[in-house]
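To: structure subgroup
Subject: Chain for Friday's discussion

All,

I'm putting the inputs and outputs inline so they're searchable in the archive.
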Amino acid sequence: MLVAMDNGQGPEIAAGSGNEAAPAAGLLARTAMRVGRGMRAAARGAVDLALPPSCMACRAAVSEPGCLCPSCWSRLSLIERPYCDRLGIPLPYDSDPVGGNPRLSAAALEAPPAYHRARAAALFGEVARDLVHALKYADRLDVAAPMARMMARAGADVLADAEALVPVPLHAMRLWRRRFNQSAALALALQCISGVPARTSWLARRRATPPQVGLDRAARAANVAGAFEVPDEARAELKGRRVVLVDDVLTTGATLDACAKALSRAGAGRVDVLVFARVVDGPSSPIS
């Protein structure tokens, strides 16, 4: 037991029995931790006073950094079950799978993707668009971690046994102009959350392609056909691995299909997809 004693020269710490140094050191360590926490809280308070936390999407004042204001949160359409087990698109109603088979939408049966499963945190609406554009075009790297947390929740099943996160790559010229790859930023944030390692060198874009914006489904597929490859030095490490492709938005799936095909041809054991937002044309009826 520690007691405070005064020997006339000020209080000192004494032990009721045993070694005096260890309890004193423990007390000093705890005191240092409390002081450190207090200093960090004070520093954060000073920063918040100078730069108050703001909503990630609309920049309205919020209580904590890295969050959405109530208005934006209410307009963010998170994807919840029931959804197609293959494409991750919402289904209009729940249904019991037949014979333990996955719930599949008509779209998944009519045009099966090259990847195994896709998961998305939200539908591509106004708020999701603002977050994607903030990261992609406004250099708002601060939104990557909060977006990745929502992605990790939505993609818990594809992350459960994944062995690597592979971001959709940019061509070297576009990377030079933009200065960073938003998909790699999300993959690195997901690595911190899930513990699944990000492998940014496992997939490369071997030729520049025009932007996909404004192209229809067929044009998007033709635009990225053969645009991606696995570098020779990555093939041995990739072989047989369960990988998750990471991107910000899934529109028609053409880019992710091209990436999945390149990974599969190089020997990946399974390719899943995890994005922050996805475009959905309309409700899809469950088939099974």
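Points worth raising on Friday:
Strands lie at 2-6, 11-15, 118-123, 164-167, 204-205, 228-229, 242-250, 270-278.
The mean pLDDT is 83.

D.
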